[in-house]
Amino acid sequence: MSTSIDCYLSIEEPSVGQIKDRGSKFIAYLFPCKNEKSFKDQLDLVKLNEPNARHYCWAFRMNPESIIERSNDDGEPGNSAGTPILRALQSNDLVDVACVVARYFGGTKLGIPGLIHAYGGSAKEACELSTIMESQITREFEVEFNYEQISFVERRVRELNLEIIKREQESKLKYVIRVNRSKLEQTLDQFEKNHLLRLTVIKY
To answer: Is the pLDDT at 173 greater than 90, yes or no?
Structure first.
């Protein structure tokens, strides 16, 4: 991961890498992915797009706060396909991503070193062709207050460079505010100086 505890690297949109070796073709589909349901849906799309492939080997890395990693060789020799794909994701420090490599067999066996090179190399190329972005790990909290307290709240928002993502105005005001994970406690302390506010953490 990125050296900042509030940041991690991911990709903006899907990319495709490809390697050919002795007649076999390896097509790597790299895509953003935040949960296993999304991964399974996108794996099915790859299979629909490449219906004649012999193998669909894959790896993913999800959840930047407690990384979950999985890989699958889909019938290739153990650790010759899913593991090198996963290593490509790890070496690029990517999270919330998955990569599926569709292999078309060309009639010549490549051996385990050849498979590692082809699966890992196609995944690496997909990573190199992707647009990498830095994402923030954030928390959200709600602050409820009376109208006479609005100047205090707005001043704190400006001073702390916070993002208001929702405003509700009824008998009282409610703001939903987003803050970087590492600054949550410090930010709540600043708001708690006004004891008339009601604070609720809604995304922890």
So the answer is: yes
pLDDT tens digit sequence for 122-143:
999 999 999 999 998 999 999 9
In angstroms, rounded to a whole number, what is the distance separating the alpha carbons of residues 68 and 60? 8
What the block records as the tokens of 63 is 């959840």
Phi, psi dihedral angles at 171 (to 5 degrees): -65, -30
**Would you say the C-alpha torsion 60, 61, 66, 70 has a positive or negative sign?**
positive
The pLDDT, as a whole number, for residue 196 is: 74
Tokens for 190?
A: 């600043």
- Whole-prediction pTM: 0.81
Q: Which helix (H) or strand (E) holds 116?
A: helix 111-129
CA angle 141–176–172, rounded 5-degree value: 110
User: What domains does the chain contain, in order, with CATH numbers?
Assistant: 7-135 (3.30.230.30), 138-203 (3.30.70.240)
